[in-house]
Amino acid sequence: MNNALNDQINAELFSSYLYLSMSAYFESVNLSGFAGWMRAQAQEELLHVSKFFKYINDRNGRVVLKAIEEPQKDWASPLAAFEDAYAHEQKVTKLINDLVDLALSMKDHTTNSFLQWFVTEQIEEEATASQIVDQLKLIGDARSGLFMLNKELGARTFTAAADAE
Ligand code: FEO
Fold this sequence. Notes:
With 165 residues, the chain is mainly alpha-helical. The chain has 6 helices and no strands. Helix content is 79%, strand content 0%.
């Protein structure tokens, strides 16, 4: 179980890296609102890392960090980036579900209980990315819509306390 949780730390760190890379892409195409949203998302992923880190230590396990994969650096469009973000969150949901399956198979109820926060969190993670994908599809090639969404997403700020709930 400890090894599987360490793998999840790596997956959450990669998520943060991926969103930071998406932020850099959005900065490069002058969509600073989208870029700011992605930076907040990258920070939220680090909060997920710290939850696993603390849990492993609380249970007298051993955190072992592994190499983080290099993320993609360019996307064809804002829609392509958010489609990737949505697909990535679906992948993370599967990883969390696999961890729950493993915990249950080992009758590790403590870890199962800990993981339930992430099961719930993934509902929001998928829904948020999916909503933005839908909005970008509606906007299509309308630049005014893109600028409005850019402004809206730029209003997101990350607060560790609020996101930890
Ligand atoms: Fe750590 Fe976006 O799930």
